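Example record

The entry below shows one chain as it appears in the dataset: sequence first, then structure tokens.
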Amino acid sequence: MYMDVPENPLKEFFYKNTGNAIHKWVHYFDIYHRHFKKYRNRPVVILEIGVFQGGSLNMWRDYFGIEAELYAIDINPLCKQFESDGVKIFIGSQEDRDFLRKVKDQIPSIDILIDDGGHGMQQQIVSFEELYDHVKEDGLYLVEDLHTSYWKHYGGGYKNKHSFIEYSKHFIDLLHAWHAEDEKLKVNEFSTSCYALHYYDSVLVVEKGRILKPQSLLKGEIVIDIDAFSSGPINDLTKEKSFIRRLMAKLKAVFNLAVRAI
């Protein structure tokens, strides 16, 4: 097993599937279940980019339950036939910004977005730039088949600055922008809306959340002289307090000398 995720109903559905075809890397099912299970049997809004044979839509319906609203995007007009009650399919290109904006106007805010579309670099990047803000404050944005970032015929390649992998590495900086000393890295809307980045083989799960400026607090009794600490997360705080105390002592001494001289 790729990860220790017991009793995975998605994997069970896949292996028993005799309906419309589903094409997935097997280790994806544990990733899905790890992040999606809290949404089961709830009113949840799902958007999947990439319909293929329609089998994954059946899988999501079985997994999330009858209260789920399912939406999908595909460039192939033949995929429209997989539309049904509770399943709305939009036909268009995921790298067409105007099309994606029209889709956003027609669907509610999204709990879970799954990009399993064309896997090209511009397709993944444009979709993220247009749709990330339509995912709810506590929702998930999942991009799969990221191995195409290492394939030249998808527009990728190792360290290719135009690949989605390289593009997404900037997310790590933005997650830590609160602590940056370089003015080139500033807190933005991504910094205040991304709770966590989960990278797996070929999959990135962006977990959203309302993020406030991080705080570093010290509580409890100081037992060891703070000057004895040479490294560690407390060091900066303790050094600052020690410096202030020494400065105040020097100022007091100068003041006392000045008073005596009068």
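Notes for this example: The chain has a mean pLDDT of 91. DSSP finds seven helices and seven strands in the chain.
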